[in-house]
């Protein structure tokens, strides 16, 4: 049995994929696969798996069985599944597992992500696919399960392969908000604390404390879980642990939700949940060298002790009658290289509190370094995680190469250059390639119907695709090449538990409507717009009920206090206007009335318009949106390109106005769309 020598002091339990027994490993942990999934009804627990009759009687047994079947098919004798490998009845074992879980996923040879609510019928970038909507992408614990493993394969509800993290990295980046560089091998420790926190901002956990516990491995810290302490307290403890090992001030670059800021008008410098980092995806790590030996900070019973440059603002700006200051966090946003500042109010001596916690002010000027002060902001030694081993640590000398049904027209032939390698037939569509003494070998494939041919070459443990004199290889587990006929061949490799690798060959016709999704990078929007889900008025705030965004925005988000939507600049190669819309429509309901707010790009200007419908109107969001197209009745409003619009509420004396403009506060996107009720 092939084994890994894992540098970990924790005891690991693994499930045998053949007889379903659980075994403890103290040292010499065997090579294993690992399952990432979302919990559903009747999961098989550690206690259940001790008695197979009980385990097999539960609904969750089907998931355990198919995970083991998949692993066994790829020659893994062992698999780790959290539901039945963690003894949750032992608080000590649970604590050990929670603090070791990132390591478990990082050390796994292969991670299977089972998406029980996804059909693999369509490519994940296809608008008909429900891949993006999977609840797996919204769960807290699955964040580390996406980031930690070296190899990840996504499986649909029928346990069929959808793709890998590498081959789907564009769409996974869009769904999660995680930069695609992470999925191409960049170490997550190179990202700021604020950026990593932002990746968890829109994720949920069943137990509130898990919003903190699920991030332990991502920040390389440990702490004892105390279920019952509450989500806020657990998240505060997490930040204190991060502060012990990091001097990155971006941990303070968070924005409270407006409703929370109104309810609790004074705060400290620590956030209360990952959601408060929802605007921080562009915040870079702080440059603490600017204050040299004053860069360290500490936390004790009277608050956070920290050195920050302070900048006084006009005395007319007051909070509860007291003057306030701008404190520079010494970090920048990639959006315009702006510098981040927060509002602090001095209470006494060196004691401060944070006010206007729903704002992080962006300035174009670097902080003044002539007034760095020691502050105490009141609040109501571990080394970096080891760097993952490179791919060369995986020594592969045996490949199983299978033609999928779409490629059955091709026949394998020995490659005349592979003198020292050996090719043997397994069945009509599958061959085994054994590399020779030089760790290289190849198989040629010829079509029985066309003149198409290609080679699959395996050199130094990595497969490549050759078509004619063109080589397609490099990093990643999926490669795509264009054949002489104009059709395409795609190869996808996947590790197995016996030091072998499986290569699947797929044939894609040139008229396949999804071919463009595989061959081209995902186009990113040109502009993002944020709008608060509050209808502001002179004397009160009223919640708007947001019905949705049209056309549906895969890059957009709708949360408890705001909506975010994106638009594109027109491009001559756009296949149709719906694909890359230059404007969108937000549809609300207020006091029973449909209310639409349109916004978009017109030339170099941003524009907005408001449409209030009567109770008897039958216009849908789509028909309102289409009315702004070139020959629609509202096209003139779009062509004017005005950033302000208003409309009268039917039956009410008020006007609804919309204003879109750039903002100098930290937020999602570059523009803020504000909807107001005017008397």
UniProtKB/TrEMBL annotation:
Residues spanning the signal sequence: none
Q: Which residues form the DUF8212 domain?
A: 233-304
Q: In this protein, which residues make up the domain named Heterokaryon incompatibility?
A: 32-121
Name of this protein: HET-domain-containing protein
